[in-house]
């Protein structure tokens, strides 16, 4: 992937199984990004070997910017740093991300510096790299729960995460399981538009999909 391309997107797919709504959202995301001319790294996390973060902080103290685990977790941080847009796809789990996605996100810690700065009355870690990326998060909840407690917690989690990630643009959406395919595509295209990606019907470019195995 060319790190200089403004349209380099990383899709972190945190599905545990082939849930139909998540599968439709995945297809809509890939189609929308590709049609908009983005180079997409489609990463299906359940197929990879990524260790749980051990909390050793060696990525800050011993090998700055590099995780101590020699596995696919290192690639997560590398591709994250090279992308202009990062997309999370996940079932909402106790108001948070799936275990597969959470495990991968813990390996993004090396992209932050260990120092603390005050911003808006709160302490935050500065970014290690100058490149910034927008963030799009798509989660699913059971039917009738789009405005429930878990969905609200999920949206709040994403909002708080953006304080450290510092994306120039971000959006988060919650889909209900069992939604019709057209509902999923309309919702996904609206979210893509929120982070500056043209909807598939308006796009003129042709993107490239790289499935990360």
Question: How would you sum up this structure, described in words?
Answer:
- The protein has helices at 20-35, 58-61, 73-82, 99-105, 149-165, 181-194, and strands spanning 8-13, 39-44, 85-91, 117-119, 122-124, 134-141, 170-176, 208-212.
- It is of the alpha/beta class and 213 residues long.
- It has one domain (38-212): 3-Layer(aba) Sandwich (Rossmann fold).
- The strands form 2 sheets. A 6-stranded parallel beta sheet has the order 7-6-3-1-2-8, sandwiched between helices. A two-stranded antiparallel sheet has the order 4-5.
- Helix 1 links the parallel strand 1 and strand 2 (39-44).
- The model is unreliable at 1-6 (pLDDT under 50).
CATH class identity: Alpha Beta
How many strands, which pairing sense, and closed or not: the largest β-sheet?
Answer: 6 strands, parallel
Strand content: 15-25%
Span of the ends, CA to CA = 15 Å
Q: Number of helical runs?
A: 6
Helix content: 25-40%
Ordered list of secondary-structure elements with their pairings:
Layout: E1 8-13, H1 20-35, E2 39-44, H2 58-61, H3 73-82, E3 85-91, H4 99-105, E4 117-119, E5 122-124, E6 134-141, H5 149-165, E7 170-176, H6 181-194, E8 208-212
Parallel strand pairs: 1-2, 1-3, 2-8, 3-6, 6-7
Antiparallel strand pairs: 4-5
Helix pairs in contact: 1-6
Features:
213 residues; alpha/beta; Rossmann fold; 32% helix; disordered N terminus
